[in-house]
Amino acid sequence: MNKSVNNSCIKTWYRRDHILLSQAYKNYESDKRIEGFFSQTLKAYKLQSGLLIRYFNDVSIESLSTNQLKEYLAESSEHLKPSSLSHRIRFMRSLFRWSHEEGHIPSNPAYKIKEPKVGKRIPKFLTEGCRIGEIVSLDKNCINWSNRSAIVRGKGDKEREVYFNIRCDIWLKRYIHNRKDTDPAIFVTDRSPHRMSIAQMRYIIKRISSRAGIY
Going from the N-terminus, what domains does the chain have, and what CATH number goes with each? Predict the structure, then answer.
């Protein structure tokens, strides 16, 4: 392939449509809903997009540079905890990576922006669901009822935030409220209440799935 043909391909891929931040996020959100992103994650990302637009105004996403994004984060760091700042950075990297992949911007200005180092408390992903071993390890004080989330400890002793829906919120509160024990674990055995083992939890899940016709 000669140089002129190659340049032509590049120009075809990169669409100079000068898409605004608000439209970029709207399209980004639609794509992530199709991909199955958890609704609580998208709600948190929508808040971040609003803050980004409030700071820069609804400018063309192509006009933002790495230095401008760093200035925005530097000001944010004055009133945000490192974990919250990391969440903001992850959102920006995701949005600008998507914009680059879709051809709205020639390069990703957030690519080299790093999260603050605060040890194992920084979650690597805002993700849905968790492993059975993580569920049985959860304590009641790990739950943030205000935004229906919980901090779980995964592989490598790394922590991350997962979310649950309103229906789960209602039943979980009812379950905890009706318990008479003082065990810190979220899920305990019926007899001599103590933290469930993975095997016990797996047995209960199989029994529920069987009643629901899921095999």
Answer: 3-120 (1.10.150.130), 129-211 (1.10.443.10)
